[in-house]
């Protein structure tokens, strides 16, 4: 199953709970950084964006992108990094 990154910036003081609940409807989700989540989904990035867009205001920023194999992290993502390196992830080779 492809892995996607979801990142957002809600521009005014907002209740994030509706967006968190929507993100948690996906098969796998994890967040170790503020406003940055990993999710598993067979949906496309556009389909995920369209779904989550219902839970943010029109002036909020939302990014959804598929993760490729060439990634790195420092001092973070211990739990997510282990999960990303485990079997069953469909993380495309960045050279493909």
Topology (elements, then pairings):
Layout: E1 3-9, H1 17-23, E2 29-33, E3 36-40, H2 45-53, E4 61-66, H3 78-85
Antiparallel strand pairs: 1-3, 1-4, 2-3
Structure description:
It is globular, with a radius of gyration of 13 Å. It has helices at residues 17-23, 45-53, 78-85; strands at residues 3-9, 29-33, 36-40, 61-66. It has a four-stranded antiparallel β-sheet with strand order 2-3-1-4, sandwiched between helices. With 96 residues, the protein is of the alpha+beta class. It has one domain (3-85): Alpha-Beta Plaits (2-Layer Sandwich). Helices cover 25% and strands 24% of the residues. It is built from three helices and four strands, in the order E-H-E-E-H-E-H. The model has no long low-confidence stretch (mean pLDDT 80).
